[in-house]
Amino acid sequence: MEIVRTVEALQNIKKKLEGSVGFVPTMGALHSGHLSLIQRAGDENDHTIVSIFLNPTQFLEGEDLESYPKREEADIKICELSGVDILFMPTVDQMYEEDELRISAPARRGYILEGAKRPGHFDGMLQVVMKLLNLSTATRAYFGKKDAQQLALIIQMARSYFFSCEIIPCDIVRDEQGLALSSRNAYLSEEEKYRALSLSRSLKRATKMVMSGEREVGLLISEMMSVLKEVDRIEYIAICDRDLQKLETVESGNTIILVAAWVGETRLIDNIWI
Ligand code: PAF
To answer: Which of 207, 236, 241, 268 is deepest in the core (most CB within 10 A)?
Structure first.
């Protein structure tokens, strides 16, 4: 595995690669969710590139940029053992210049749900994903469904800007209890981890109701709220179609149920596609 820390070095190595490239962008603190993306990229492509870049522009003031878990040594080992060919770990200076040209998230999809709670977050996320996809010149790029809105916006960006890279949505990976894996789970104490399980439990309850014929969004949301009693604060529960438009009734095969909630000082998101 080659570890590359500059844009120029990555571009030079890329010139020598032949065949398809699978790309997995990350912010580090790798877990089994990332591993599943890396494995899939490896299975479906001739070469795998992973990036680890804690992107400052997608954090709002007062968010956890400084405290975000950093595990460089362990991350390098994980990539090595997973058969990654190139690990790109740039500095902020490599990725950004002064007075940058900016990308803006779309006015509706970018400012609902996560975008409403974290205005500006998706501008920074799209900015860096655009840069990373251009740099990797990947055939396919792999993103988890856990960040459903992020994924929808990246798919839209790829469509709007005519990217040749195919965006591959990948299933959420959960621990044995059902907690969706996230680098931010590292912030949770054992007791908080236990309470955080109510997010996936609420999604499971709603799915079960849908399976037994309930379609009315209002009823599903109030049932989810009753399951979510153990979290400290619910930020939103939303039932949308795949284009993130709010639904009145569930449409099988075109629905995402999303939840965001605080457990202690940690903000968690989860969702289920039905
Ligand atoms: O999902 C993430 O880890 C980040 O938002 C991404 C896509 C790597 C961009 O910084």
So the answer is: 268
Between the CA of residue 107 and those of 120, 123, 222, what are the distances in Å? Answer: 11, 11, 29
Cβ neighbours for 227, distance < 8 A, ≥ 6 positions apart = 198, 201, 202, 205
> Helices in 164-271 by DSSP H: which ranges?
190-211, 217-227
For the entire predicted model, the pTM comes to 0.97
| Domain edges within the chain | 2-170, 183-269
Q: Is 34 a catalytic residue?
A: yes
Q: Whose CA is nearest to atom 8 of ligand 1?
A: 26
Those residues of the chain that have pLDDT short of 50 are none
What does the pLDDT look like over 202-247, one tens digit per residue?
999 999 999 999 999 999 999 999 999 999 999 999 999 999 999 9
CATH class of 2-170: alpha beta
Tokens of 154: 């990246």
Q: Among 24, 26, 63, which is best to mutate for testing ligand 1, by the most ligand atoms less than 8 A from CB?
A: 26
Q: How far is the CA of 65 from the centre of ligand 1 (A)?
A: 13
Give distance in angstroms: CA of 54 to centre of ligand 1. 8
Q: Which CATH class is domain 183-269?
A: alpha beta
Please give the sequence-ordered ranges of beta strands (E in DSSP) within the chain, or none if there are none.
2-4, 21-26, 47-52, 86-88, 140-144, 166-170, 233-241, 255-263, 266-273
Ligand 1 site: residues with CB under 6 angstroms? 25-27, 55, 58, 125, 128-129, 147, 150
Largest CA-CA distance found in the chain, in angstroms, rounded: 56
